[in-house]
Automatic annotation (TrEMBL):
One of its GO terms (molecular function) is hexosyltransferase activity. It comes from Planotetraspora thailandica. It holds the Pfam family Glyco_transf_4. This is Glycosyl transferase. Residues 3-152 form the Glycosyltransferase subfamily 4-like N-terminal domain. SUPFAM superfamilies: UDP-Glycosyltransferase/glycogen phosphorylase. InterPro entries: Glyco_trans_1, Glyco_trans_4-like_N, Glycosyltransferase_grp1. Keywords: Glycosyltransferase, Transferase. GO terms for biological process: carbohydrate derivative biosynthetic process. Residues 169-317 form the Glycosyl transferase family domain. CDD domains: GT4_PimA-like (cd03801). It comes from the Bacteria.
């Protein structure tokens, strides 16, 4: 969704953008699907480098912008193809590099000497940039260009902002996959509830879907946590409705490279609780836009503190509604990419 938004806003800014992907799907204007029959529809093409070289050589783009996660074989093919075609390359890395990933890219350096390719790299946060810089070394510039958001679209109406509620509503949004630690999120909610006086009513909504959902539902039934709901995956408009009634947003994953859902909540005026060592710390400061914790117990305490203290919640929510995360707005993101394109072309 983030890449689709980048393509849209770059097109609106007057750029001519084409996308090459190995992901199967419907035909879309400007999208070239280089799809090979692979088990489980894996987005990998065994001859992707050759296909991409032919495409790039025919079109001669001004710059090739590759988007990759921790392990992205097709994206790596895109980098190699652009270098072999003699084209400027900017690589945006959307994930946190763990020790295994860092070791993998060191091995690739030994095999391909990619540090000498003239690539310009960007990461979506300072937390994500640090391990990349450790591997890339001084010869590969690694800039931070935030993920983008139409900030004004998430701002709540004046009527919603003025509402007072009797129940503290805690919200989390994300894929229910092991990397996001959804079971720990349920333990966090239950532990935070135990630290809040019984006369304060609480409810929680965990938006999203994924392989851990069944286990989470069984856990909620076993623990009789009927105040926690799992509505599944929702559209952006539906998420806006959920955030309109939220008092606290929780993003507990320690290896969150950015935290787009947390940015949406912050833009909607909701106080955010997140890990100090995650990418969320780029746009959430303790006591300003939310509360940060370095440990799991500190996250529990932060949620409980906000649930117990309506004045603190109102103060943070008011600040979030009145100030915009400027670095995450689309004009700032486009400007950041333009600087990287110019650097790569130079």
């Amino acid at each position: 969704m983030q890449v689709a938004d980048i393509v849209r806003v770059q097109g609106e800014a007057g750029h001519d953008v084409e996308v090459a992907t190995a992901t199967p799907g419907e035909a879309l204007p400007g999208v070239h699907r280089l799809v090979a029959p692979m088990p489980f529809d894996l987005p990998v093409h065994p001859r992707g480098t050759g296909h991409l070289i032919r495409m790039m050589t025919a079109r001669r783009p001004d710059v090739v912008h590759v988007h990759m996660g921790a392990v992205s074989p097709f994206a790596w093919m895109g980098v190699r193809a652009a270098v072999r075609a003699g084209l400027p390359v900017v690589v945006t890395i959307h994930s946190m590099w763990d020790p295994v990933t860092r070791g993998g890219y060191r091995a690739l350096q030994s095999a391909f000497r990619w540090r000498s390719w003239g690539v310009v790299a960007t990461a979506v946060s300072e937390a994500a940039a640090r391990p990349i810089r450790e591997v890339a070394g001084p010869g590969v510039p690694v800039h931070v260009v935030s993920n983008g958001l139409d900030v004004s679209a998430w701002r709540p109406s004046a009527d919603v902002a003025a509402e007072s509620r009797d129940t503290v509503h805690v919200v989390a949004v994300g894929r229910l996959a092991p990397r996001k630690q959804p079971m720990r999120l349920l333990h966090l909610l239950e532990a935070a509830r135990s630290r809040v006086p019984e006369h304060i009513a609480m409810r929680a909504t965990v938006v999203g879907d994924g392989p851990a959902r069944g286990r989470m539902e069984r856990h909620l039934r076993a623990r009789r946590l009927d105040w926690v709901s799992l509505p599944g995956r929702l559209t952006r408009e539906q998420i806006k409705e959920v955030l309109a009634s939220a008092d606290v947003f929780v993003a507990p994953a320690p290896r969150e490279s950015f935290g787009l859902a947390a940015l949406e909540a912050r833009s909607a005026g909701v106080p955010v609780v997140a890990r100090e060592q995650s990418g969320v710390a780029d746009f959430v400061r303790p006591g300003k836009e939310g509360l940060l914790g370095r440990t799991f117990d500190e996250l529990i305490s932060s949620v409980a503190t906000l649930a117990r203290d309506p004045d603190l919640r109102r103060s943070i929510a008011g600040h979030n509604r009145e100030t915009e995360p400027v670095k995450c707005s689309w004009p700032a993101v486009l400007e950041g990419f333009e600087r990287c394109y110019a650097l790569a072309r130079g």
